[in-house]
Amino acid sequence: MKKIIYPLMLLVTLTFNLNFAAAADNKPKTELTAEQRLELNRITSRVEEIKAMDKSNLSREERKELRKELKEMKKKARAMGGGVYLSVGAIIIIILLLILIL
User: Fold this and answer.
1) What CA–CA distance (Å, rounded) separates 22 from 9?
2) Is the pTM of this model over 0.70?
3) With contact defined as beta carbons under 8 Å apart, do 63 and 23 qualify?
4) CA distance 81 to 30
5) Is residue 80 a contact partner of residue 37, using CB atoms and an 8 Å limit?
6) pLDDT tens digits along 48-75
7) How far apart are CA 59 and CA 88, in angstroms?
8) The 3-state secondary structure of the chain, one letter per residue
9) How far apart are CA 50 and CA 31, in angstroms?
């Protein structure tokens, strides 16, 4: 059984290392342009405006449109911000691998 587990763990570890190295080289961090900052400020002000609204008198369709608009703005803001996101599952797997290796 150990003859199977050790090479498998080595393969998984090397695969993770190669993926992280490739992800690190893909895109350098860049500053936001003036247009992007303006768009981000517009999105932020619209979100604050929506938060301040009284939603109790809106119809169901209007609330649905607001949620849809907020989701689209969130996608745009994340696309501008960039960054690397790790899921909870990925973090747990990495921690378990580190514990097993060390």
Assistant:
1) 20
2) no
3) no
4) 10
5) no
6) 998 888 888 989 999 999 999 999 988 8
7) 37
8) CHHHHHHHHHHHHHHHHHHHHHHHHHCCCCCCCHHHHHHHHHHHHHHHHHHHCCHHHCCHHHHHHHHHHHHHHHHHHHHHHCCCCCCHHHHHHHHHHHHHHC
9) 28
Between CA 44 and CA 50 the distance in angstroms is 10
Q: Report the length, in residues, of the chain.
A: 102
CB 25 within 8 A of CB 59: no
The C-alpha atoms of residue 39 and residue 87 are separated, in whole angstroms, by 28
Predicted confidence band of residue 13 (pLDDT cuts 50, 70, 90): confident
Whole-number Å distance between alpha carbons of 87 and 29: 21
**Closest by CA position to 95, among listed 16, 19, 18:** 16
Whether residue 43 contacts residue 36, with contact meaning beta carbons closer than 8 Å, is answered with: no
Closest among 57, 93, 53, 85 to 70, alpha carbons compared? 53
